[in-house]
Write a structure and sequence with these properties.
alpha+beta; 4 strands; single chain; globular
């Protein structure tokens, strides 16, 4: 599996098996943090950690979610790489960060994910982002449309993936390993979402 497969399983499950969902979804870029100890985990740095509500040692990932009135699922991820990692050859090597991966602002990563989804043939009705992205003029200029107030659904995704599926339980340190972990969590979340949306699915005993 490579980096782009972090959302491909969910894309298959949602895009190929529930056309109604992808025909009427909004694209929602967001980011989530993972508190960490030490300095060797890929992308770790002292930065704003939303999970703790303060600056702390953590990783930050940007995700793109497909959302509609009834459900939402992440379809792609990028682990944010702070600037200090660009020139730290030792840490980059240990964490397995590809040579071509360099610091890129979160809003640029969000645009990359949106472009990637469009390249997959997914066409969101609208693109929704919270104020943290909307305040950046360059990000707004990179979007054709923008609405607000769907962050609550994405926070629900994050809570479910962290508390129920172990998104924040990854203890490895490598770039590739983190994205493999996100792939498996994304696939599990997509499967559970489809089960909830399927009126024929048997209720749990």
């Amino acid at each position: 599996m490579d980096l782009q497969e972090a959302g491909s399983t969910a894309r298959f499950l949602i895009g190929d098996r529930d056309a109604k969902f992808t025909a009427a979804f909004d694209a929602v870029p967001a980011d989530v943090s993972f508190p960490k100890d030490g300095k060797m985990s890929a992308g770790v740095a002292r930065q704003w950690c939303e999970a703790l509500g303060k600056r702390a040692n953590c990783q930050v990932a940007v995700s793109l979610h497909a959302a509609c009135d009834t459900a939402s699922v992440p379809i792609s991820w990028r682990l944010f790489l702070p600037k200090e990692w660009d020139e730290d050859a030792g840490r980059r090597s240990r964490a397995g960060i590809p040579d071509e991966v360099r610091h890129r602002e979160k809003w640029r990563l969000a645009l990359d994910l949106i472009d990637e989804a469009i390249g997959w043939g997914l066409a969101p009705k609208v693109i929704v982002a919270d104020a943290g992205y909307g305040q950046i003029t360059a990000f707004r200029h990179g979007l054709a449309e923008r609405l607000a107030k769907m962050r609550w659904r994405i926070e629900h995704d994050y809570r479910e993936m962290k508390h129920g599926l172990g998104l924040d339980h990854f203890e490895g340190r490598t770039w590739r390993g983190w994205h493999h972990h996100a792939t498996l969590v994304t696939a599990a979340h997509a499967f559970l979402t489809l089960r909830r949306l399927d009126p024929k699915a048997p209720a749990p005993a």
